[in-house]
Amino acid sequence: MLVVYYSSGSQYTHRFAEKLKHPSRRLPLLTKSDTLLIEEPFVLITPTYGAGVNRGSVPKQVIKFLNVKANRDKLVGVIGAGNTNFGENYCRAAYTVAQKCKVPVLYRFELLGTPEDVEKVDKGLDLLCQRQLNTAI
Ligand SMILES: Cc1cc2nc3c(=O)[nH]c(=O)nc-3n(C[C@H](O)[C@H](O)[C@H](O)COP(=O)(O)O)c2cc1C
């Protein structure tokens, strides 16, 4: 299952995505850069930035990417990256995207994740691949 993710300069999400067995594509860092066009089912990983301080918590490049209907149509689910120090706003962006795009939040992890997080996400992505294959037959 393809993974599409945004990761800022701190690169935590990038480091997590690199450890997965599944292929991944990174959204551009700069908002002004062209976004990606994805033509196969994918899972999005998004960190949360600044929830609860009167600012949008979804990174701008994630919004730009999901404003393309063709991309939204291929979105299977969302994984949240965040920090539990943010309390009730932990991984808020994943919930915002899930609600707007009517897909489930599949998992949440903190910062660059643990080896257990990587294993669980890999297994979940394996299951999603199998499900896609079954529905294709
Ligand atoms: C200014 C700032 C605001 C943040 N706000 C939140 C938040 O509201 N909720 C949350 O779960 N994490 C929040 N985080 C934590 C990041 O989502 C977390 O560090 C994430 O792993 C960053 O991923 P990245 O390095 O790939 O961009 C915030 C981090 C920063 C620097």
**Beta fraction of the residues?**
15-25%
> Would you count the extended β strands for me?
5
Separate helix tally: 5
Percent of residues in helices: 25-40%
- Inertia-based shape: globular
- Structural class, by secondary structure, is alpha/beta
**pLDDT < 50 stretches:** none
CATH C-level name: Alpha Beta
Q: What Rg, in angstroms, do the CA atoms define? A: 14 Å
Do you know the CATH architecture? 3-Layer(aba) Sandwich
Q: List bound small molecules.
A: flavin mononucleotide
CATH superfamily: Flavodoxin domain
As for the number of domains, it is 1
The strand line-up of the biggest sheet is: 2-1-3-4-5
Q: Describe the main β-sheet briefly.
A: 5 strands, parallel
Mean pLDDT: 95
Q: What is the string of helix and strand elements? A: EHEEHHEHEH
Give me the CATH fold name: Rossmann fold
What is the straight-line distance between the termini? 17 Å
What does this structure look like?
This protein is α/β, with parallel strands linked by helices and 137 residues long. The chain has a single domain (2-136), classed as Rossmann fold. It contains five helices and five strands, in the order βαββααβαβα. The chain has a five-stranded parallel beta sheet, with helices on both faces. Helix 1 (12-19) links the parallel strand 1 (2-5) and strand 2. The longest helix is centred in the C-terminal third of the chain and has 22 residues, at 115-136. Flavin mononucleotide is lined by residues 7-8, 10-14, 47-52, 57, 81-83, 86, 89-92, 111.
